[in-house]
Specification:
Elements: H1 2-11, E1 14-15, E2 18-19, H2 28-45, H3 48-67, H4 70-87, H5 92-120, H6 140-147, H7 163-178, H8 180-229, H9 233-258, H10 264-281, H11 284-298, H12 303-316, H13 319-336, H14 343-356, H15 367-379, H16 394-419
Antiparallel strand pairs: 1-2
Helix pairs in contact: 2-8, 2-10, 3-8, 3-11, 4-7, 4-8, 4-12, 5-9, 5-12, 5-13, 5-14, 5-16, 7-8, 9-10, 9-16, 10-11, 10-16, 11-12, 11-16, 12-16, 13-14, 13-15, 13-16
Length: 427
């Protein structure tokens, strides 16, 4: 019923006072916003118990549709982009600037999260008697080993960890650029395949927009249960204020300052669809095609820098996870002890959250909460099970983290493209 209502909204314009069935030229972010609004409304009106199975199924199906074309899109887009950048002798400067923006944004977000929660002085959360069932670790060595499986074609079998695919595509694009005589046909095919999968991603975007109803509905049902408990309202308030300040104020101001003469809120409108998708899915791989498609079309960023930048941002720019994990960890410390937090502890939280966030590329969903569990384990001193206090609110932590990371990718890619003059027209 809700999907029919959604279709009627986007497909029934009035011409001479009569309804005509053809699609409106509606922007993607508006479709996503309508889908999310209908989903939130459904979370209010639908009977939870009788609808839960259907909502869960449709949510999982939407995630699968969104991630369906991610791997081939990254493979062919990055390979074609690396070839183009290498051919233009502009490969390493864009890569260096992307990595610099990733590091600086993650550092800024980590300290912003700490400052915000220390200013709010959150109330204590009741200590639970739940015990640790299993421990989680972030293995840097394992990530490096996963970059080089025993067979290069094995990278096409891991749909979650995209860095091996990125490296494989990088090598293909570089090899083609070094031997243009023998690889001219292959290079043209790579570029053509990247365009084809961009079209496929665009086609899937309309399906995802309808699927946003299910994602937002599932999110709303879980959120209302968390909010009704009253325990996590301060966490919701702090993360909500941080999110709005970052996305609506700080990032636009930064674009205005660094790239003078450009319209920062046009960047925000281009990234609105991906931010919505990230918030309600909590999945960076699900968000990646939306990011690539929307910034390419909405901001006219050249394909060469767009593909490389967004893939690296999706893997490494997890400052949102660092922010939410730092905020959550301070709340845990405050709940266990009424004593203040020392300056040394604050520095430890900042350094640990910042550093460990770069070990999350293999965790496209749930990474923020896993980072929190690792912080608790590394801090020790009886806090190993502290993350269990916030386990019921994991949805909130991961939603805000992924949405902030999506916004970072959009604004970061825009800044890199503008500074290197790699847009097709003025933004």
């Amino acid at each position: 019923m809700l999907s029919l209502l959604y279709s009627s909204i986007i497909c029934l314009p009035l011409v001479k006072n009569q309804a005509v069935l053809y699609p409106l030229p509606m922007k993607v972010w508006m479709k996503f916003l309508i889908g999310a609004a209908l989903g939130l409304l459904a979370g209010f009106v639908l009977p939870v118990e009788s609808s839960k199975a259907a909502i869960d199924f449709l949510s999982r199906l939407t995630i699968r549709v969104g991630r369906y074309a991610v791997l081939p899109l990254v493979l062919f887009s990055v390979a074609g982009a690396v070839y183009a950048l290498h051919d233009a002798k502009r490969l390493y400067k864009p890569l260096g600037l992307v990595l610099l923006v990733i590091v600086l944004s993650s550092l800024f977000l980590t300290f912003m999260g700490l400052c915000s929660i220390l200013l709010f002085q959150p109330p204590r959360i009741p200590i639970s008697g739940e015990t640790i069932v299993e421990t989680v670790a972030l293995d840097a060595g394992g990530l490096v080993e996963a970059l080089f499986p025993y067979s290069g074609f094995s990278v096409l079998l891991n749909e979650s960890f995209l860095l091996p695919v990125f490296l494989f595509a990088f090598l293909i694009g570089s090899a083609c650029a070094l031997d243009k005589t023998n690889s001219k046909l292959i290079a043209s095919q790579l570029i053509s395949l990247s365009k084809i999968f961009e079209y496929i991603a665009g086609f899937l975007m309309d399906i995802i927009a309808i699927g946003m109803i299910a994602l937002a509905c599932k999110w709303a049902v879980e959120f209302f249960q968390i909010y009704a408990s009253g325990v996590y309202n301060t966490l919701i308030l702090v993360l909500g204020i941080d999110f709005l300040l970052i996305v609506c104020v700080i990032y636009p101001l930064f674009v205005s300052f660094v790239c003078r003469g450009h319209k920062p809120y046009r960047v925000l409108s281009a990234g609105a669809a991906s931010i919505l998708a990230a918030f309600f899915s909590g999945d960076t791989n699900f968000t990646l095609p939306v990011n690539m498609k929307q910034t390419r079309e909405g901001l006219n960023i050249q394909s060469a820098i767009n593909a490389v930048s967004h893939t690296l941002f999706s893997a490494f720019a997890r400052g949102g996870a660092a922010l939410t994990a730092a905020v959550s960890f301070v709340i845990i410390l405050h709940s266990y002890s009424s004593l203040g937090i020392s300056f040394d502890t604050i520095l430890w939280i900042a350094a640990s959250a910042f550093g460990l966030s770069f070990l999350l590329p293999g965790l496209p969903s749930g990474g923020a909460f896993i980072l929190l569990t690792v912080l608790c384990a590394k801090y020790g001193r009886g806090f190993e099970a502290g993350y269990l206090l916030l386990k019921p609110a994991a949805l909130i932590v991961c939603s805000f983290a992924t949405a902030i990371d999506a916004a970072t990718a959009v604004f970061g890619t825009c800044i890199v493209a503008l500074k290197l003059n790699m847009t097709e027209q003025r933004i």
